[in-house]
Amino acid sequence: MAERYPFHAVEKKWRRRWEEEDLYAVPDFEDKPKYYCLEMFPYPSGKLHMGHVRNYAIGDVIARFKRMQGYSVLHPMGWDAFGLPAENAAIKHGIHPHDWTWQNISFMREQLKQLGFSYDWHREIATCHPDYYRWTQWLFLQFFHRGLAYRKKAPVNWCPSCATVLANEQVVGGVCERCKTPVVPRELEQWFLRITAYAERLLQDLDKLTGWPEKVKVMQRNWIGKSEGALINFPVVGREEGITVFTTRPDTLYGVTYLVLAPEHPLVMELAAEDRREEVGCFVERARLLPALSRTAGEQEKEGLFLGAFCRHPLTGEDIPIYVANYVLMEYGTGAVMGVPAHDQRDFEFARKFGLPIKVVIQPPGEVLDPDTMTAAYVDEGVLVNSGPFDGKPNLQAMGEIVAYLEEKGLGKRQVTYRLRDWLISRQRYWGAPIPIVYCDQCGIVPVPEEQLPVLLPYNVAFKPTGESPLKDCPEFVNTTCPRCGAPARRETDTMDTFICSSWYYFRYTSPKEDKAPWDKAKVNYWLPVDQYIGGVEHAILHLLYSRFFTKFLYDIGLVSCDEPFTNLLTQGMVLKDGAKMSKSKGNIVSPEEIVEHYGADTTRLFILFAAPPERDLEWSDEGVEGCARFLNRVWRLVRSLIPVVQGAGEPAESLSPPNRELRRLTHRTVERVTKDIEEFGLNTAVSAIMEFTNGLARYCEEVKPEERDPGTLREAVETLILLLAPFAPYMAEELWEQLGKKESVHRQAWPPYDPKLVVADQIEVVIQINGKVRGKVLVAATATPAEMEEAARREPRIEQLLAGKEVRKVITVPGKLVNFVVG
RNA sequence: GCCGGGGUGGCGGAAUUGGCAGACGCGUCGGACUCAAAAUCCGAUGGGGCCUGCCCCCGUGCGGGUUCAAGUCCCGCCCCCGGCACCA
């Protein structure tokens, strides 16, 4: 029975020692370059899943690697601890959300510790702790004082299942992002953060984020959805007030043949002709009742209705019919659109369906558009026609001129519009940070004074989802006095969206116990921005956009000195089983607990890093885990068998026999490979390089007689192997390091350097090609010149044979690589 | 439809700047050790061919092209995954 790495005992031993020595604590300031390595903190749902393990394993390799490279590394962990699941669990199992959450935290903390992640636990935070949410509330007040937190009545997304409203970002394809229930519109008075005030900067500064994946930046760009265009006023026949439309194509203004209003547009009913009121009312009602799902998800048949009213074209004075139609959205632009069927596909379809005229105003080069035979709108560039004084101009030029003309006449103006909406942050739920606001009959909306924070979440509350905050039924909470006039007043009972809590946690880690401010400025400015952020791509818009918004705001009010929080972002892929995301309903969950129990932390980590590059999805494989366990056992046996030789050995000898020189070369080449791979997140190839190194070392031991081995070279190889393995398999590396007789932790060692001179082989194998096909190989000195390479190639018997009697027209030599004979 | 990513053995995945396709691992097959098995170790493993030579042909989604040389570059397609989707 071959000896096996006794991971249970080793893990237990080192967990205790590391904790005793406080190995991973990082001082606030140190005389070293800083590196802030952060992974997205988890929601304490109960147990870790493989996605967490992957996320944190990747982060831990980076943190340990940087630490060994001499950085002072901030690598913290905490809990995104407010949220709905706690309340749902409470309702289902009769356990209080507070208790449920803290139980989960203590279980998951234990799991993280078992996995050997190198967090500084002194900096642990939980967003549901009053010491934390006190500052969440404080930050809300900063927004409030600057007019960036406001209350308004608006149509909002209501999730019937979660019994709360949702932000736009939390509605995906018309359904609730968390429970997939179709959301329904509701008209409610709610709190918003004015993220739209930062739309332009959030967009512009994406260009600064060179360390972010393009994918995420594109998603944010689309989400912000900037369009440049114009507002144009169309006077309504027989009325004072006109209709303002937003268009990105003012160059097509002369092609307008009708106007369309969104069903929710306030003018719809006003403008509807007497005899059409009822019909229009029905239409609007039908559109309104349709769940958001079918309104926004997928294109659907265009429906519309003539209102029986007309407006006047601002430039031609023509009468233009006004319609109401389902394809116009009230939320975007002005909720009114000018219909240009010839040059907008949607308008084209609508016009064809309702028999509206199609008027061509842009002619493509070398083609004449005929409205009667067109099968699709022409949306590209061309020259204006039927456009009065603008005829003959290129449309891009005309665009500016038409807007300028409208501005001059007071008929319209330049306008930039964003798709981004203000962030709805009220939640009608219990388990969140209370919004620190008091309503007073005399004074109105009054912010809770900072010195009265936190507004504590009461413990004894019935948290049934009724559609109203459970806090409403808690008189001790609701009833208060007005901070301004002292009269009886009521507290705001809604709590904050948990994304608020997670929008600033990375600042708090720098000074988690600070009680005079959300953070110590000097510390925040020392550590921030985060050098490397790692997490799932599902947060591409939500968390990452909100955090950028928060950071910019805090920068503006002078609380932080960076205006982007995350310099580099790595979005890791999902963990799949049988090609599908692990989920309870599919029954394909692999539990980290069981794997760690059965194979140990090192094997679990190693497999998850080896099986795929970090950004890609990872297919779980039990056999693959076995393979990694086998590898670690091999390392264990190999290193232990060499301890007697290695201990006490000195430096490698000056002059080495070929096998020793080869081993030395392998050692240094491996350091080079692993270093470069980790730097560019090729963690899977870093692991395979270590495996190859192990194989090479084992082969050396097999092939080279003990008396021919150079002890110094062997020592260097073995120590290097352990050092390289340390970020990936920290427990085993630490144990072997100690068995080697080392006194100080392997995790406090410097990352091994490599000597480029030693990496180069004495001899290199040159590929010999004839007409681009490999026909042989030859060993030459690494220093061989192209002429020497060619000469050596020609001398190869087989090549000589193949070239005999042929005319060599050309010879291409790539130094150190190949010789290619081109024969006629 | 638009945007982003991808398509390489039986599987997960490697391949600087265009320079030996398939590293490493899994699986499979064969062998050693063993009474036997497990564990461990060794060897083989893209497909095909015959003249069994450490030889030849084919081979990185498909069709063209550039080049001495293409998984990699160019043109035209197909398929898969992710995101957005009536945004005027």
Automatic annotation (TrEMBL):
ATP binds at residue 584. A motif ('HIGH' region) lies at residues 42-52. One of its GO terms (biological process) is leucyl-tRNA aminoacylation. GO terms for cellular component: cytosol. It is found in: Cytoplasm. Belongs to the class-I aminoacyl-tRNA synthetase family. This is Leucine--tRNA ligase. It comes from Ammonifex thiophilus. The lineage of its organism: Bacteria, Bacillati, Bacillota, Clostridia, Thermoanaerobacterales. The gene is leuS.
